[in-house]
Design goal:
InterPro entries: CarboxyPept-like_regulatory, OMP_b-brl_3. Keywords: Signal. This protein has four helices and 50 strands. The protein is mainly beta.
Length: about 900
């Protein structure tokens, strides 16, 4: 594998084209594109600067954006200009030996928009909309001093920042964040949200575009478009170091520290970030997560275009977390001949160490050929110690099952991958051909030490079901090779042909060994192999996919129609003897129809299908080494499930009033869904057999409305969703269906008066109902209400005060879980050193009532859980800002 990587890297890095000419004059060539739509620009004027130039020395780009102009070798550069676009000046970078100066691709930014766009007239444009791009002017959305990107994006109409750091626009996922077209830490949205200063941002662009070749290869049959959030940097902030350094200390040994430095130039970008804290990464605007977590991270991101006709991008990110947690779980089972209820208590201490590094090299070989190479490395180490006790009741036999367990695990994994994408532009720029190669290698070393004791008690006796003290080493190796090819050909101005194919071959090998830990006469550990419970398996997974279709853009219609074929072949070997094979192929259409009423209003219908492959371990029967009360039997006849999705969505955005309304309906159904058929024997052991079963479906509707009042100072947002899902299951050979209804609604209010005052208020409700066909007497209802109010007031002498209060009320949960949660955070801060620094005193959970409660609806159980969470503390911090 290492030889393959070195050979591929050597061949592709040095694949460049050379050419020579005997002409004395210099020929300048290039291609000009719109910076947002990435479409060629025609009619761009190209003027020579300096040297022996004349007013007639001007070239014009053709319909493909291409130009060519003769010049002497004394020129200082060129100037590109076009009505409604910013002038672009390029300095000469040729040498005296050159006869051709290829400037490559040039991207020009608009000053105003053309007639088939919608924009706001006036002194400052708020927003503008084209067919594929929505752009917001960051200056029109007021944020507090020293705000971060997350604070800015929460003010953009239609854009939602999710609690996990992901983004949605009109309920469609945004795949990544780029800065002037370049990825920030590999497109990591969470890192961008908390490490980019809002004051850096000039424009926020939400772009719908075709995926790059490498992304298409990952999900060929799931669609070939994505939404990207692109940020442009203010001109006066370029080539400057912008960031901050902060440190804070609190009671109960609480602390926080961090730094962020960003520098963005015209041809290069550099970022350095780092932090360490033991307060769960929380701030005054939200509550903490489960457990008590200490986090350390540091990262570096770099991109430069100063290498001739090339761009080099590199990033590295290290993160380590240490989490202490405890939980109480009450579970009610939905059946009559298996467990009735279970109570479990668990305490754990987990450490996670992760490191990721990427190097990407983009090379323009010549005007028609391009090469992109990327090498990635990932390392992960997880250490976990947990203790658990549980009590399970079987009401039909008046039997209880007791268990205690202790687990120590140490799992180390790493992965290497190499990706190369070659793109060739066709003659007359009629389209392109691309091919994408990916090689991957991922070894794992998993070690688990566990002790457990399980006893069964009835009215007559107590007996031990299992007692062990074992070591389970489990080395795993994964190898992968993937090849993806695509052809795009412009049949006409409005019709594009696309053909694509992809093949992925993956090999996995796993050695699962078990040893009993015994003490010798000297008290030392000895390890006795347990051959009856040890096993080895390996598997080959071959995935082939093809897609052929057309993209039609005619008047107000955008149509993407594809015919797709997908096949998954699996071959599993157990202990190098028995072989299980599994093959399945499907043929299905994919259709996306968009009708654009105007640039800001559209109706979209979409349908697609894809297969969910069987996990290799589901095809073979292997023992459950760590839990003898759970027996898993493989099913060699198991088939891959097929998922079909249909959706209809509508969105309208008025860039003048910033009014947004969007909504949609979605229906998803699965054929041959893989579920577990569960039985319980007389000892209380759970025996699970994976089977295929139809009847899984989900229907969901959603809406979102945002409106501004009082000269855009007051914003109202309404959103909600409602859905119903059905899931089949089998308990003790009896089939049943779980049906769940869910309805949620939220209203959010925001009032902003310049930088003097900002107030936010919100109210939400979530109702869930679940019923079971197996036992019609059991129907559960639970409701959650939440209310929040926060404000920030900036006072004279550069003082600021703020507060956030939230209350969550639960109804319908199990006994002891229906308690309200009140969370009150507050702060006071003062800017010092002429606004370059600030001191802040914060109080978290002032009422000392923070807790974490959740409900999980399973196919045959309902579970309520309470987890350890961080409670009241105070923090004094100092921050210095580089502006």
């Amino acid at each position: 594998m290492r030889t393959i990587f070195l050979l591929a890297t050597t061949l592709l890095f040095y694949s460049t084209s050379a050419f020579t000419q005997n002409e004395v004059k210099l020929t300048i060539i290039g291609q000009v594109y719109d910076s947002v739509s990435r479409q060629p620009l025609t009619g761009v004027q190209v003027m020579l600067l300096g040297g022996n130039t004349q007013s007639s020395d001007i070239a014009t780009t053709n319909k493909l954006g291409f130009f060519s102009i003769k010049a002497s070798k004394s020129i200082a550069g060129i100037l590109l200009f076009k009505d409604n676009y910013r002038n672009t000046r390029l300095k000469a970078t040729y040498t005296q030996k050159d006869t051709i100066w290829n400037i490559g691709n040039v991207y020009m930014s608009k000053l105003i928009i053309n007639l088939d766009e919608v924009q706001v007239s006036g002194q400052v444009i708020k927003a503008k909309v084209t067919r594929d791009t929505t752009e917001f002017n960051a200056a029109r959305f007021q944020t507090q001093d020293n705000a971060m990107l997350k604070d800015l994006l929460t003010k953009i109409p239609g854009l939602t920042v999710m609690p996990d750091g992901t983004l949605k626009y009109n309920d469609e996922a945004i795949s990544r964040i780029t800065i002037e077209g370049q990825e920030y830490f590999g497109g990591n949205t969470s890192l961008a949200l908390k490490n980019l200063n809002a004051d850096l941002i000039d424009k926020i662009q939400i772009v719908r575009r075709d995926k790059d070749g490498s992304q298409q290869g990952d999900d060929l049959t799931k669609g070939t478009q994505e939404k990207v959030l692109n940020l442009t940097i203010k001109a006066d902030k370029k080539n400057k170091i912008i960031g901050q350094v902060s440190i804070g200390i609190g009671n109960d040994s609480k602390y926080t520290s961090g730094f962020t430095f960003n520098r963005f130039g015209n041809s290069d970008q550099m970022s350095l970030i780092g932090s360490r804290n033991n307060i769960n990464n929380i701030n005054e605007n939200r509550s903490s997560s489960n457990g008590i977590t200490t986090t350390t991270d540091i990262g570096f991101n770099f991109s430069t275009k100063k290498i001739r006709k090339s761009r080099l991008t590199a990033s590295a990110y290290f993160q380590q977390t240490q989490t202490e947690n405890s939980s109480i779980i009450d579970r009610q089972y939905i059946n009559s001949t298996s467990p009735t209820s279970m109570n479990q208590q668990t305490s754990s201490n987990q450490s996670n160490t992760n490191f990721k590094a990427d190097v990407k090299f983009e090379k323009e070989l010549d005007t028609l050929n391009f090469l992109i190479q990327k090498i990635s490395f990932n390392y992960g180490l997880t250490k976990n110690k947990s203790n658990s006790s549980f009590l399970t009741l079987f009401s039909d036999t008046n039997t209880t099952l007791n268990g205690i367990s202790e687990n120590h695990s140490n799992n180390k994994n790493q992965s290497w991958s190499y990706n190369a994408t070659y793109r060739h532009l066709l003659k007359e720029k009629k389209g392109f051909f691309s091919t994408d190669l990916t090689l991957g290698y991922a070894p794992e070393k998993n070690n688990t030490y566990f002790q457990s004791l399980y006893t069964q008690q009835d009215s007559d006796s107590i007996k031990t079901l299992s007692s062990n003290n074992n070591w389970n080493p489990n080395p795993v190796q994964n190898k992968m090779i993937s090849l993806y090819t695509a052809l795009e050909y412009n049949i006409s101005k409005s019709v594009l042909f696309i053909g694509a194919s992809g093949t992925t071959l993956q090999n996995t090998q796993s050695d699962n060994n078990l040893y009993s830990i015994l003490k010798d006469i000297n008290g030392n550990n000895t390890y006795l192999p347990i051959d009856t419970l040890s096993y080895r398996w390996s598997g080959d997974n071959l995935n082939n996919a093809m897609a052929v279709g057309f993209v039609i853009k005619q008047n107000k219609w955008d149509i993407r129609s594809f015919a797709n074929w997908s096949m998954i072949s699996q071959k599993i070997r157990l202990n190098d003897t028995s072989v299980v094979r599994n093959n399945k192929s499907i043929f299905f259409p994919q259709l996306d129809i968009t009708y654009n009423f105007n640039p800001g209003t559209r109706l979209i219908f979409s349908t697609n299908s894809y297969m969910t492959p069987v996990f290799p371990i589901q095809l073979i029967s292997v023992p459950n080494i760590q839990n003898p009360l759970q027996v898993i039997s493989g099913n060699p006849n198991l088939q891959n499930s097929v998922n079909n999705r249909y959706s209809l969505s509508f969105s309208h955005f008025n860039p003048k009033s910033l009014f947004v309304i969007s909504g949609g309906l979605e229906y998803a159904v699965s054929k041959d869904k893989i579920i577990n058929s569960v039985q319980y024997d007389s000892l209380g052991r759970q025996i699970a057999i994976p089977i295929n079963m139809n009847g899984t479906n989900n229907f969901m509707g959603r809406f979102n409305v945002t409106e501004y009042f009082f000269k855009k100072k007051f914003k109202v947002n309404l959103n909600g969703n409602s859905g119903v899902s059905t899931t089949p299951f089998i308990i003790n050979a009896t089939s049943s269906i779980n049906k769940t209804y869910n309805t949620a609604g939220n209203i959010g209010l925001n009032y902003t008066k310049g930088k003097l005052l900002e107030i936010n208020a919100g109210f939400g409700a979530n109702y869930m109902e679940s019923s079971y066909e197996l036992d019609s007497t059991i129907r559960t209802y639970n409701t959650m209400y939440n209310f929040s109010l926060d404000y920030q007031l900036n006072l004279p002498l550069k003082f600021s005060i703020g507060m956030r209060y939230s209350r969550i009320i639960y109804a319908g949960l199990g006994a002891g879980f229906n308690q309200p949660i009140d969370l009150w955070n507050s702060f006071i801060s003062k800017q010092i050193m002429k606004g370059k620094a600030a001191i802040k005193l914060q109080g978290f959970d002032l009422l000392n009532k923070n807790t974490s409660i959740s409900r999980t609806i399973g196919v045959n159980y309902i579970e309520d859980a309470r987890n350890l969470t961080m409670q009241r503390f105070f923090l004094l911090s100092f921050s210095y800002y580089f502006k």
